[in-house]
Amino acid sequence: MIIYQPMEKTDRDLKFLNIALQEAGKAFLKEEVPVGAIIVRGDEVIARAHNIKESSQVATDHAEIRVIRMACKKLKSWRLTDCEIYVNLEPCLMCAGAIMHARFKRLVFSLEQDKTGAFGSLFDIRSLKLNHSIEVSKGLLKDKSLQLMQNFFTQLRRDG
């Protein structure tokens, strides 16, 4: 059975999700799907990134993959066991796999993604028999993330 931690409004989580949303805003300005991610170790943001898949034309240039790569390089380790990852949108299967393999202690995301979400919406990667478990919290700043996504896709339809 998969259990989600109740998402309590803590100043710490609000602070870090707002930083992830700032990264998502950078993606929005580049006409990329507005997803931003940060990695926190203790109380320090050690890496931040946003989607650049459209501009790079690289399928793996999701915010989560990019930020994991940055954090691993900074820490000189692929194991991010003492880190947390904050994302404004529920990670897809590719990103969920990377998050599990990097062995984060915690994932915090705002908005569920019914079409591709791999931490409870479409399916839950944690239901597989993997050698790592992760605490997942969701829903904080959901309205803010939803508004950003709606604005992006409204603008895309209007301009496209």
Quick synopsis:
With 160 residues, this protein is an alpha/beta fold. 40% of the residues lie in helices and 19% in strands.
How does this structure look, described?
With 160 residues, the chain is of the alpha/beta class. It has five helices and five strands; from the N terminus they run αββααβαββα. Helix 4 (93-102) links the parallel strand 3 (83-89) and strand 4. Helix 1 (11-29) runs parallel beside helix 5 (142-159).
Helix and strand arrangement:
Layout: H1 11-29, E1 36-41, E2 44-50, H2 53-56, H3 63-75, E3 83-89, H4 93-102, E4 106-111, E5 135-138, H5 142-159
Parallel strand pairs: 3-4, 4-5
Antiparallel strand pairs: 1-2, 1-3
Helix pairs in contact: 1-5
Key terms:
alpha/beta, 19% strand, globular, 160 residues, 5 strands, 40% helix, 5-stranded mixed sheet
Radius of gyration: 15 Å
- Nearest-integer average pLDDT: 92
For the termini, the CA-CA separation is 43 Å
**Structural shape:** globular
